[in-house]
Known about the structure:
Layout: E1 2-3, E2 6-7, H1 8-21, H2 25-38, H3 42-55, H4 60-83, H5 88-105, H6 142-153, H7 157-165, H8 170-188, H9 193-200, H10 202-205, H11 210-221
Antiparallel strand pairs: 1-2
Helix pairs in contact: 1-2, 2-3, 3-4, 4-5, 5-8, 8-9, 8-11
Amino acid sequence: MKIGGLVVDEAMKVVEEMCNKVHEIKPFRIKAAMMETFHQNNDLLAKCYEDILKIDPSCVTTLKKLIVIRESLIEMIALHVEASFPEPIIWKEFAEILILFFENADEDRMSVCLDGSGEEGSQQTYSVRYNSTPRMFTETSSWTLRAKWWLNRHFSPEILEAEMRNGTGYLEMMRLMSYKAACACRIYGPEFGYVTKVYGSRLVKYSNSLELFNFLQRHRHNWNRIYNLE
Length: 230
């Protein structure tokens, strides 16, 4: 397949060089359009959308595309959480993708392109109000049921007690509890029982890993509560 006499990979290289040389929006939009058509790698595409938004944060079209990618990843991780007892790294990535998702989807005000296409030219500013909870968590009952089930499957007092008693893999268990608690901050809020017990636990607070304590503290200070189920 050819584009203007160049094979796709060669054309992508040309566009990439343009993006590296100039801080203008058009080369990045061309790159995004080509990647959407020929190279649908979600990680690379998400990075491309982020680059566009750094130059033109007013473009709601690009923001919506980025949110869709985040939604898909959140759903896939959630399915994994349902089907297994995830490793600490999965809980960590889950917490981080949730914070990124809320930062992108939870803006109170934004400038919207007049024609909705995100192209340069005539624009008009509108005030846009977003619900504090993204629609993917409220439009259907699936996430509510999921959150209720996880209360017993992953965040029950019995589960936490067993984790704290576990004498094998001390640091690995600290990671597990800290990253799970960070996720729980997003889903159930910072005052959720699992969160407060892990955060106040000497096991985490006075462990040798300040990184774990700071990670959980960051999520407690920058929190969301999607569901109030306790």
